[in-house]
Amino acid sequence: MANTIHNIGILAHVDAGKTTLTEQLLFLTGALRCVGSVDEGTTATDSLSVEKQRGISVRAASAACEWNNVKINIIDTPGHIDFAGEVERALLALDYAVVVVSACDGVRAHTENILHSLQKANIPFAVFINKTDRTGSDMQAVLHELKDVCEQSFLPLSTIANEGTPQVSAVALSDADFAKTATEVLADLCEEAEEAFLCDTLLSANRAEVLAKREIAACRLVPVLCGSAKLGIGVKETADVLTRFMPSADRRKTDDLCGIIYKIEHDKTMGKIAHIRLFGGELENRKEVTLLSPAFASAHTDADAVATEEMPPAKEKISQIKTFSGAKRTDSGRIRCGDIAAVSGLTSAKTGMFVGSLGSLSDSALVHPFLRVRVTPADGDAQKIPSLAAALRELSDEEPYLDTKWENGLTEITINTTGKIQLEVLDNLLKERYNMQAAFSPPTVIYKETPSAAGTGGARYTMPKPCWACVDFHFEPMPRGYGVSYHGKLPFDQCQYRYQAHIHTSFLNTCIPQGLYGWEVTDFKCTLIGGEHHLIHTHPLDFFVATPMAFMNTLQNTGSTILEPLLKIRITAPAELSGKILGEIVKTGGECDSPVMHLNTMHTEAIVPVATSMDLPTKLAVLSSGKAVLSQQFYGYRECRDGPEHISPRRGVDPLDRSKWILWARGAYQ
Predict the structure, then answer these.
(1) What are the φ and ψ backbone dihedral angles of 31, each rounded to 5 degrees?
(2) How many CB atoms lie within 10 A of CB 301?
């Protein structure tokens, strides 16, 4: 058994060739007997029928192999932006990433998102420039694009010959060439290499390797390799570099038992399966472990006693542990420090939870769902709605961004979505796994709202007895993109900590999702400025009744402003169409940069509202006869410019209707 472990993620824009590279690495290391094909649906890591049919990955898949006495756990991630949530969660488990870039297509929009997320999360990465056998391959142009996008320095570790032809070849640098290249690149990063460069001398190959490893682990240097994954060219050189230069699992090692759940899946036989990356300690079958939510650490930095009351850790017993061998799972009964495994028995596990003790999480995000659809049984049978809601909630465990919402008694279910392809995959999963057929409404835009001004408000729930719960809030608007923060700790004798914990839990789970206009409330700071309990009359659930009333009363006092989502788009099209294309952008209410002309081609960027630009790709395709290329990414939210008419029907009873709300919250109103 290899003593060193590397946990790596293969990341890329769709069709860059990451699944093919994963397949070739598994074949090279002997984990596979033959190389599968994405087009034929025979790859080891694309196991879902929809993946085989469409030739794309929609779920992150794990595999393992050994090379140069190093165990490599590979997480092959989806490349389509609709499934970027899978990539985002995979980042939790990685020691480093391999970003695959097409030598023909260059750095695409989603590739930029991935690179920025890796930088923000402080995760080292290497780059594999793929498809160098294709006509139009330009490795140097790709390298220049990477330098424009990233802050790091890039160190090419292989050379290429016969680029753009099927006879392409990739060769690792010799020691002499490596010493020369590394000295030049490292001169910008460390004094030792700078001194050697200025003195017109070279670092030794061994010393250059030591310095390169240090700078790679510090996320300041990126090794670059090239080849053709489809032809297996450059794959051995890539495996050698990864095991030689990239950091091992020891980089994130902890002294205490600590692991992160980075993926949840469901199995008909085993139930819920949690994929865990272990940073410290060991896990064994039948061992009882503590599950901790990251919110446990961040909920009240100024009120530990309140946080402890609010989120007591759950303890559950492991029933089975399976580790990976190739793309298959073997019952090992044990997971060692630094390894990953699929663990059964943790029924309350959720993505992002820690096992054992709390570790750190990055706040990098690749996904911002801005569309919502209604889901109903395809045959309109209302009796099937509860079963459909249960299935969608189970799928939401696997893809939390779906955020399934359904109130018992309502005739519709709502989910969030990132695009049409995600809905097609969801429809396929419902049919295959649950034997259900669903109908999806046309997508509508997810707006948000924010307090219009600073203000206070509260609620006193003291009748009908027995009850006693008083809550007072202060809201303060914050800049766009701030999110929500909660502050305030009251004296224990004024309001016991367990009741303050109830206030915070209700604030997060019940209040924020629906404001005055029915949208999620964001970009504000909430401070608990008052609260009161009664030693005799207060019931344990009273604060769950009072808090939503206090929240809505405060929001009514401050007023609420609707926010609309924006996209950042990039368009490349024939220059003669620039006037028409800019006109279409203006019609959406977007803000456009001046176009850049180059070789009869126009390049422009714009910020456009989601609501008015949903049919922009179709219009551009018609205008340009398919010659225009459009890429887009989420940009943020701004105040809605077309008035407050975007109102979402409220789910459940409105706490502003005090009498009805109290009856409903106490179970006396149907």
Answers:
(1) -75, -20
(2) 9
Q: Are strands 448-451 and 520-521 parallel, antiparallel or unpaired?
A: parallel
Going by C-alpha positions, the residue among 566, 569, 588, 528 that lies closest to residue 448 is 566
Contact indicator for 449, 563 with CB cutoff of 8 Å = yes
CA distances from 45 to 37, 49, 494 (A): 11, 12, 57
Ordered domains of the chain (ranges, CATH): 4-173+222-252 (3.40.50.300), 258-355 (2.40.30.10), 371-446 (3.30.70.870), 449-558+649-665 (3.30.230.10), 562-639 (3.30.70.240)
Which residues are registered as beta bridge partners of 154?
222
Entry pTM: 0.85
Look-up of token digits 């640098």: 173
CA-CA distance, 111 to 128, in Å (whole number)? 12
Mean pLDDT by runs of 10 across the 670 residues of the chain is 90 90 94 84 76 76 93 90 85 95 88 90 95 93 92 94 93 94 94 92 95 96 96 96 96 92 88 93 93 59 48 81 86 93 92 86 73 91 90 90 78 85 89 92 92 97 90 96 92 92 90 92 96 91 95 96 92 89 90 85 90 88 85 87 77 90 80
Give, as one character, the DSSP assignment of residue 351.
Answer: T
